[in-house]
Structure formats: C-alpha cells, structure tokens
Design a protein that fits this description.
The structure holds 2 protein chains of 2 kinds.
Chain A lengths: L3 E4 L2 E5 L4 E7 L6 E7 L5 E8 L4 E4 L2 E6 L4 E6 L8 E8 L5 E3 L3 E6 L1
Parallel strand pairs in A: 2-11
Antiparallel strand pairs in A: 1-3, 3-8, 4-5, 4-9, 6-7, 7-8, 9-10, 9-11
Chain B lengths: L4 E3 L2 E4 L5 E6 L6 E7 L6 E7 L2 E5 L6 E5 L5 E5 L8 E8 L8 E2 L3 E5 L1
Parallel strand pairs in B: 2-11
Antiparallel strand pairs in B: 1-3, 3-8, 4-5, 4-9, 5-6, 7-8, 9-10, 9-11
Chain lengths: 111, 113
Amino acid sequence: KQEVTQIPAALSVPEGENLVLNCSFTDSAIYNLQWFRQDPGKGLTSLLLIQSSQREQTSGRLNASLDKSSGRSTLYIAASQPGDSATYLCAVRGSNYQLIWGAGTKLIIKP
Amino acid sequence: ETGVTQSPTHLIKTRGQQVTLRCSSQSGHNTVSWYQQALGQGPQFIFQYYREEENGRGNFPPRFSGLQFPNYSSELNVNALELDDSALYLCASSRDGMNTEAFFGQGTRLTVV
C-alpha cells in the first residue's frame, strides 16, 4: 500500500531564503508525482508535474526533483516571498488511478 | 481555457440528509475525480469517472455515489449524511491517460450538523 510522507509538517523562514520541502513515498511504481499549493480553506493549485521517467521540472522560482528508486521528491523554492506562504502537498499517481497524498508542509515566510 | 468550477462553495446540512455537489471539468478534459479533505490532512480519493463510467474507487461506503455527464461535468452524491462527512470536497479534472496533470476546483466546504 502506497504511503506518502512530507517532512517537515511546518516551516517558518525569513523572506529571501532558499528552502527545500521533502516528500517520500513507499512504492516506487508510480506514473507521476505532482506538487500542489493550497491556501487556507481553498482548493489546490498545481505547481509542477514530474513524470516517472523524468528527474526534475522547473517553473520560475520552483524546482522539483524526483528520485523514484529511493522514493523521494524535493520541492526547491528560491528567494522565498511572503506570498509563498501556503500549505504545499505532494501526490503520487499509481496504477489504480488515484492520487495518494502527503499531509502537507505548512510554509510561513516572514517579511 | 476555463478552469474547474465547483458548486456550491459552502453548504450546511443536517445529519441524515442527502447532498449533491457539482463539478464542471476543465475544457478538453474527460476524466473527473473526487476527493475528501478533512482539516489538516491530505485529500482522500473517493472515485474517478472516465467518459461517464466509474473506473476507480477509494475506500468510501456506497452512500457516496457519483455521475459523469456527456459534457464531462460530474456530481457527487452523499446519502444519510454523518457528522464525519464534514470536510472540503475537491473535484479534479484531467485529460485521459495516467500521465496527465490533474487540475482542481476551489472545493465545496460541507458542514454536517
């Protein structure tokens, strides 16, 4: 049974710092991994999608990596801004169609 | 290209009642999936519809049911509501295939009292 873990559960850093969020999964048989952002009480905004055959994806200040063999993905945020404050979730898609989710990392960027 | 929209945004129901939540998928998408998200947790998969047929289901009881229409919009129905059904219900749409990106609506906040 696939399990997804995100560490840390919460993170508070000063504005301008570069930071890394971690996501680990127990079953390497995945189709893809997706990172999302969720603002309080809101829906999910897709940030990056990494296919199982890819090693990384970049979008602006965000870079996500995938190491399928070790069951790990990282989301790197460069030059953090207060507007980056949100909960970040990772989800993996396996052969049974569904996305399996971590519980998220709550990120606070202090001005 | 229009995004995924859900209605209503908020809803309060009494235990034992029935509720219908609606989702309009993103233009060009034929797959819709529904998730339940309790406070402080990651979403849990309820089911998925592909071209009007259910093709995947999570660990939810039969009182959670759904439909997908020819225009690929979808409904989630929950019968005999329980207090624990209070959650954010999220709808996602994607193009067919396993490797495509999922796009989510803003969710429906259901409160059962």
